[in-house]
Amino acid sequence: MHDFLKKKAPTLESDRLIFKPLGLEHLSHTYVDWMNDRDVVKYLESGGDYSYEMLKDFLGGVQNGEFLFWAIHLKSSNKHIGNIKIDPVWMRHMICEFSILMGDKIEWGKGYAKEASLRIIDFCFMELNIRKINLGVVENNTVAVKLYTNLGFSIEGVYIDHGIYDGVFSNVLRMALFNKNYIEGSK
């Protein structure tokens, strides 16, 4: 097992962002508000009925576990604007699962999701030696699908009418990015 997987996520940086291990220090009413905001959670598996205590329990579990789970902060103000994680990681197969939540709607449309994703993808490929990153995205979440496509992810499969998102049965796309394709594409 890689050393990073035996401890907390390391603090990382990109041009405009700092990635801090997610934990109880991120407990706030603002975060609870994200988890109850229909626009933020409509394509997530959780949310819509969050309480402060539920968030506290969740963050305590993350803090006490061994996760590659980061809070995304703006360098300029230290403001917490979202989360990003790599979990689970299967080192035997050299693959992992990627997800991102941009909770602060004021910061949407400023390129932070792409910047954060690129930094964590680089971490996976360059520091963990992952060969393939997987993710699932609701097909109707066109903003996320566009982001992942622009990052180089390709569709490997479609789960038809997989779940109810935003009140309707929706397809879920399974997408993947291979290390070799990412490295070749960035040259």
What's the shape?
globular
- Measure the end-to-end span: 30 Å
How many domains, as an integer?
1
Give helix % range.
Answer: 25-40%
Q: Identify the CATH architecture.
A: 3-Layer(aba) Sandwich
Quick one: biggest sheet?
8 strands, mixed
Instruction: Please state how the strands of the largest beta sheet are arranged side by side.
Output: 1-2-3-4-5-6-8-7
Our Rg estimate from Cα atoms comes to 16 Å
Summed up:
Helix content is 30%, strand content 34%. By secondary structure, it is of the alpha+beta class. It has a single domain, classed as Gcn5-related N-acetyltransferase (GNAT) (Aminopeptidase, 3-Layer(aba) Sandwich), CATH 3.40.630.30.
In words, what does this structure look like?
This protein has one domain: Aminopeptidase, CATH 3.40.630. The chain contains six helices and eight strands, in the order E-E-H-H-H-E-E-E-H-E-H-E-E-H. The radius of gyration is 16 Å and the shape is globular. The mean pLDDT is 92. By secondary structure, the chain is of the alpha+beta class.
Keywords:
Aminopeptidase; 187 residues
What is the fold's blueprint, element by element?
Blueprint: E1 12-13, E2 17-21, H1 29-35, H2 38-41, H3 52-64, E3 68-74, E4 80-90, E5 95-102, H4 112-127, E6 132-138, H5 142-151, E7 154-165, E8 168-178, H6 179-185
